[in-house]
Amino acid sequence: MRKTILAIALASVMGGTAMAVTLPAGDSKNNPLTGVTAASDATLAGTVVQDSSTPFGGKGINGTIQVRVVKSKKTAGFHYYWRISNAPASKGAINTLNVHSWPGMTAYEVEYRIDGMGNARPLTVSRYHNALDSNPKEKLINFYFDPKLAIPPGQSSKWFFIKTSAKTSSQVNLSIYGTPGFIANVTGLGPK
Fold first, then answer.
1. pLDDT, tens digit, for every residue of 45-84?
2. Do residues 98 and 142 make contact, with C-beta atoms less than 8 angstroms apart?
3. 127-162: buried (b, 16+ CB within 10 Å) or exposed (e) per residue?
4. Predicted TM-score (pTM) of this structure
5. Domains, the chain, ranges and CATH?
């Protein structure tokens, strides 16, 4: 009995049971992220089918966003990954990524990778859709970093992702927010 309890405790401390957070359709609350590894979620293993890096900048913040599409070996669905790097000469931190035009009628699994590069991690994720907005078809998935730490100059985020069952991609808009009052808009890939 004692050995069983110890084994369960060790598995939970070592992240053996960690899974991605399910983000239900229509969910607008901030959902906490805890991080996963490829060892804890076998669906993350896959083949990189697209990898690009796009520079952004203005108002004292410059950096790059890397967008990666991975085809899961287990599900054959595309997983969309992002990693943001803040240039050493930037004058502020980066705290949010909004992924625009995301199909909104399904639940997605989202999380960040503990076992990858980078040091800043998103703390929470939410969905946003408001039919009364100026663009009523706009649907967002928002990744929020710790407002006190965020992604400071000279550092980068961990890889964070959305798992999908999509088999093809299309262009989506990405908005990167930082302090003080910084916003950059770039394009990347999302499910078609």
1. 999 999 999 999 988 899 999 999 999 999 999 999 999 9
2. yes
3. bbbeeeeeeeebbbbbbbbeeeebbebebbbbbbbb
4. 0.84
5. 19-191 (2.60.40)
